[in-house]
Amino acid sequence: MFVKIQDITSFEPYDAVIIGSGPAGATVAQSFLRRGRKVLVVETGSATVETDVQDSYSVIHGQGHFDSNYWPQHWIRALGGTSAVWAGWMKPLSARNMVSWPVTRGELAPWYDHAAVTLGRDPMISTWQSAGVPGFDLKPFSRGNTARYGEAAGEAIWSDTHVHVLLNATISRLHPRHDRTGIERITAFVAPDLDVEIDIAAHQTVVLAAGGMGNAQILLGSTDGTNAAVGNDTDQVGRYLMEHPHFYECATLIVKESFAFTTPPPSFGRFVPALVPDDATHAAAGGVDASFELAEIPLTPEDDLQSLIVERLGGQAKAYVLNARTEMRADPSNRVERIFGTDPSGLPRLRATCIFNADDYRSVLHYLNALGKSVADQDIGRVGIINDHLFSNVTGGGHTMGTTRMGSDPKTSVVDKDCRVHGYSNLFIAGSSVFTTGGYSNPTMTIVALAARLGEFLGGKA
Ligand SMILES: Cc1cc2nc3c(=O)[nH]c(=O)nc-3n(C[C@H](O)[C@H](O)[C@H](O)COP(=O)(O)OP(=O)(O)OC[C@H]3O[C@@H](n4cnc5c(N)ncnc54)[C@H](O)[C@@H]3O)c2cc1C
Fold this sequence. Notes:
Bound molecules: flavin-adenine dinucleotide
Oligomer: single chain
Distance between the termini: 20 Å
CATH superfamily of the largest domain: FAD/NAD(P)-binding domain
Number of helices: 11
Structural class: alpha/beta
Strand content: 15-25%
CATH class of the largest domain: Alpha Beta
Number of strands: 22
Shape: elongated
């Protein structure tokens, strides 16, 4: 239920304070309410997306492949968070994407099943695949049923009496205990000249679920100017910023008319066909993953080269344009940092540096060459790489990952395998900021899986 700050007479009854109401925060809140436990959800935004909130809070100076317009558009400050605009595509990470994580893909499997159901899918979307062409599997993305947590998908959570939602309030600072083993107090900015201090009792936990930028921002802002910011003793907060490079229309595939891919069974629901390198092809490319969406397009009879290819293929062919969704290497120098100035709550303004590595491009080129060779060797098709689109027209997916990464070593990570900030007994993080690597898969299914796992770890019920 929605509450106002004046309705809250004591913070003592809450088992947890959850910061942010997007898919991550909503999922953790849901786990608590299933056990009849009480949580307070603090959300910067209003019930709907408001331009002035967006303009005041989501200001980020962008450097590298994404400019200052990019990041704010992809971080929505309202009930339900960025799920207000997400497209609903989903795919889990695969085992090869998680080798450097302290959690294995096998451990996440039941949580992916849970996430699939939560997001309105059959769990089989996590595992179904079929043969593509030699060197590549057909692994479709699931799409449809776009869960918006500010609307229908969040209704049962936000209306439950165990969940108190405080809108238009921003957590601006976490205050560590003097021995820095936990959080003793948090500051909520509710209105100009109205900061509310929330004492964190021994039975309570704090969960940051403020988005890929927001989780790092809150930690970076939680400093007294003398000591390192909370969780940042080894200068890891904000590092390893990752997006998913998207190369739209980076190649065309012309195949014989008779060539057909197996379509998933009806329970898969709506899907987007995509070719994904098999493990051997993936290993040969150096470990960066990619997927190639197959979008059928009409043949262009006036294109001489196409006509020649069609003739060589026997006269009857069809064409696809390939849209690549790929992984970028986790690089500590791609990072979010605090810069001069603050937002209205006092949180630091951020600069986001995100630069793709030359090898990120080379891997995609490698895969396209491998795909071209594969279909040519069998004489079933030809691939044409569109150089300008591949090298000059890259964008992202609106996915912000890695800024509070998960790992066993506090020197190179911010949270442990339970999503607990290293050294802080009562501080946890939910969201794609904990991703150690990004794979090529859209992140929200993994966010919901990890958040449900965290919710249960904290005593909730998935
Ligand atoms: C255009 C677009 C399309 C997308 N399409 C897809 C897709 O097809 N598939 C997919 O998997 N993903 C997609 N995504 C990404 C998806 O939206 C995010 O992965 C997901 O919303 C992240 O969930 P979250 O809860 O971690 O963060 P968010 O949804 O960003 O929620 C964070 C919430 O925390 C609040 N907050 C932040 N700081 C504070 C603070 N200090 N105090 C209080 N509250 C705070 C924010 O206001 C926000 O409401 C897309 C994103 C965009 C922009």
